[in-house]
Amino acid sequence: MKRYKFLTIYSLIATSAFTPRLMADYPIMSQRYLADPSSLVTQDRVYIYCSDEDESSVQGSYHIPDVVCASSSDMKNWTDHGSVFRAAKATTWAKKIWATAAIERDDKFFLYFGNGGADIGVAAAPTPVGPFSEPLGKCLINSRTPGVMPAQNMWLFDPGFFIDDDGQACIYFGGNGDNNLRAARLNREMISLDGEVMKMNATNFFEAAWVLKRLGTYYFSYSTTPKAQMRMDYMASNNPTNGFT
CATH number for the domain including 43? Predict the structure, then answer.
């Protein structure tokens, strides 16, 4: 979890090369203290979901109880939708919402989030801006979920997702160790696991697991440990949950 005062267009564009006309020098939102943006693109808008640290102390405590959403139809003018999901209000088990990942499926919208580094939950809504509710009455993944353990000093957070061409959805999560990376298949309704959690390995793995597919190849990207200079590294495979090098 890295802390940033301003969320900018520049921070959201991932491409192999930048030109001056692609770089923006204005913030999407500067009136809030936000971190860990993730995006959801619909037919006519892009929605950005951010961890909201407005209630954290100046010294820093990662007190992040809710997620804030902003959206735009032109990538320049943005609407601040405010808090769209607050853990303590919407659940009986979570107090924090770290690094959400958003996805749309079957006309429903889902937010996956870390309850600090302890476990992972999911919220669902009929629209991208809510109202989000927690459908399970419990977390989706914790240390007792089959396949998660054994692990040493593992952080259960930073969920990432991927839906393959055949419709199979996967969730990726974990942190703080090469052997602390995990993946699991999701059922079609997106709020339950299809089978046990699978173990993955990534050199200098720290946080921010993410997968994408391009031209038949799966790419897994992540943030490395401070020892490895906190780079963004990636690996490739012909399978979404194993064989990454």
Answer: 2.115.10.20
